[in-house]
Amino acid sequence: MKSRSEEGKVSQTESSVRKNIILVVSILGISLLVVVLLVFLKPVAEHKAVIVKAPRVEVVKLHQQQVQIPVYSRGVLEAEKQITLATEVSGKIVWLSKKFKDAGEFRQGDLLLKIDNRDYKLAVIRAQAQVAAALQILKRVEAEAEQAKKDLRRLSSTALKNASPYALREPQLKEAQAKLKAARADLSLAELKLEKTDIYAPFNGRLLNKHVDLGQYVVSGSSLADIYHAGALQVALPVSLEQLELLLPEKVLTDEKPVQVLLSENLAHKNIHWPARVTQLDSKVDIETQLVKLIARLDMESIRDNKNILLPGLFVQAKLISPEKYSLYVIPRQALHANNELWLLNKNSQLTKLRVNVLYKNDKNIFIQGYLQDGQKVILNAIDSPVSGMQLEEAE
After folding, report:
1. Does residue 320 contact residue 261 with C-beta atoms inside 8 Å?
2. What pTM was computed for the model?
3. How far is CA 383 from CA 54, 378, 379, 390, in A?
4. CA atoms of 263 and 294, how far apart (whole Å)
5. Are residues 237 and 223 both part of a single domain?
6. Is the distance from CB of 80 to CB of 395 less than 8 angstroms?
7. What is the pLDDT of residues 216-238, one digit of tens each?
């Protein structure tokens, strides 16, 4: 049997459990009530229509224009005519002109150097003596032939008629004439060699490199100097096949439709220009670069200012101007996007993307042939996340 104290402890424990259960049930009930109130008393959201504003774009309306397309290239000036001055006789150089020096200028006919001519003068004298001797022999043979004819005529007309060529001295006469002709040829050759001991400038020009000096012995065929004609310079200008098509659609140079060239270079902080003209089309395309060269000629006689600046070896820029005009669309360069795309605004104010082939472009514009139509609108400004067909709004 339990004691009274133990029964009291059990009664207190049961009372405490009942109180905890009542507390938990009360909390759950209150929480459930709060949830129910929140569900039934929640605010109702007001539904509003979503308005999507179309991006505003700036456009330009297209119209074809007649345009002469420039093509840009670059190259190095070269002498149009450059030769190696050589001697045709042997001997020691005994005199040099002050103009016979590197970069020296000379005029056609200027005496540039002299080769010792004493041996050649003696050769002329000997040749003259041989001519005189051959002439004397010829005169004697002619007299003998004439005398032979007279002697035969005195005998009889039949004797003269039947006389052999030898009796008439004809072989001797031909031999004497041939010897005189050979002697005179030897004299002409000796005089020619004597003349060639003086070396004259073949044209107006400048000396690039001299190869000999005073006192040096040279043999026939020796190189004396490299010289070039100062009347004209030329420059080889490489262009692509597409650019060549613009400049020369028929691949033929004509005087009626010349390709004009403007050469330029920054010299002494000044941009100097010189007019030139394409005179030749190269005969082949470079295998590695697939470029073809146009040869432009610069007439130095027509240029007076800054003439001394233009020398072979000068690097120049070139602007080649097409003789033909083309129907093209000229569009601000900012309208061109990646992959050569243009963005157009169609009649429904929607975005249309068009990929084009740019014929030519400069710092401000691009030039396009075909692809487009007059009246179409090209978008100039950028658009965030551009998608074909998106609605746009044209700026006023």
Report:
1. yes
2. 0.64
3. 11, 13, 9, 11
4. 13
5. no
6. no
7. 999 999 999 999 998 899 999 99
